[in-house]
Write a structure and sequence with these properties.
Length: 287
């Protein structure tokens, strides 16, 4: 996969070089960004849950199911809804990359229900448009988020919201708003509609690098999960482990943590760690 995205970047560079030759537009910047085939601005990847926004994941998930249950009440009981959401999310965690996470989730979710996949999608989207934002009350913004984003933007760094892509784009934009982040401030949001794998698969991080047209060595992953987020270090991405998130035995976290790791010593050690506010201190070294 790593070779695949490097080849993709190279092919895109050839197309851009052809444009430069035909138009006569050439300078130092076009050499760096086109002939070298590299996005020269470094990229910061931010996890969202218990990195930028803090909350009890189990309490949030239960409240989420209670909110979704009424829109599915003619199809499934709340208990079976909970089980089906978990099973469908587990299927997404095992996505082999041939389908988007959205396709995998809704294909699994719609099995056994008297609704077509697109009709299930419409029900969820209606919920995200009208009721999902009510869960904002369960969330708090982590200290230093606005300052870190202000600094990152001023320094011209690329920003990726690299939350595990279980959510639709609409749901992700709502969740970002809880942290005071606007979609216009970021260069990429990973969500179920545009991603083909999940954390802790290395393919998830490789796909981000491919979409951003950048090398792993020019990226920094900031997150609270020692497995899902720090595994990015295996492909050369610098890592910062946030230590001020709220920890809980979220079923989805437990499932994903068991996917690739069996022993504590197999975990990737972070390059940096500390509360989120400490990111400001290490940015100069990364840049």
């Amino acid at each position: 996969m790593q070779l695949k995205y490097r080849i993709t970047i190279f092919l895109k560079s050839l197309l851009k070089m052809k444009y430069i030759i035909l138009t006569g537009k050439f300078n130092k910047n076009t050499y760096n960004t086109v002939l070298v085939g590299k996005n020269m601005s470094k990229t910061i990847l931010f996890d969202l849950d218990n990195t930028l926004i803090l909350f009890d994941e189990v309490k949030f998930f239960r409240a989420y199911i209670r909110k979704v249950a009424p829109i599915m009440s003619d199809l499934i009981s709340p208990y079976n809804l909970w089980r089906l959401v978990l099973a469908s999310t587990k299927a997404v965690l095992n996505n082999n990359g041939h389908f988007t996470n959205e396709e995998v989730f809704y294909q699994n979710f719609s099995k056994g229900l008297n609704e077509k996949t697109h009709e299930i999608w419409d029900r969820f989207q209606h919920f995200y448009e009208n009721e999902f934002d009510q869960l904002r009350a369960l969330v708090a913004v982590n200290t230093g988020v606005s300052d870190i984003f202000e600094t990152t933007i001023k320094k011209g760094l690329n920003i990726v919201i690299a939350s595990n892509p279980f959510w639709s784009c609409l749901a992700m934009e709502t969740r970002m708003s809880w942290a005071g982040i606007k979609k216009e401030q970021v260069h990429l949001i990973t969500h179920m509609e545009n991603m083909h794998s999940c954390k802790p698969h290395l393919e998830y991080y490789q796909e981000i690098c491919q979409k951003m047209e950048t090398n792993p060595e020019d990226c920094l992953m900031i997150g609270d999960d020692p497995v899902n987020d720090m595994v990015a270090g295996r492909i050369g991405i610098k890592t910062f482990l946030v230590t001020d998130g709220k920890k809980s035995e979220n079923p989805l976290r437990v499932i994903s943590n068991k996917m690739r790791f069996c022993r504590e010593e197999e975990r990737v050690q972070p390059d940096y760690s500390g509360p989120l506010v400490k990111v400001q201190e290490i940015l100069p070294a990364f840049i």
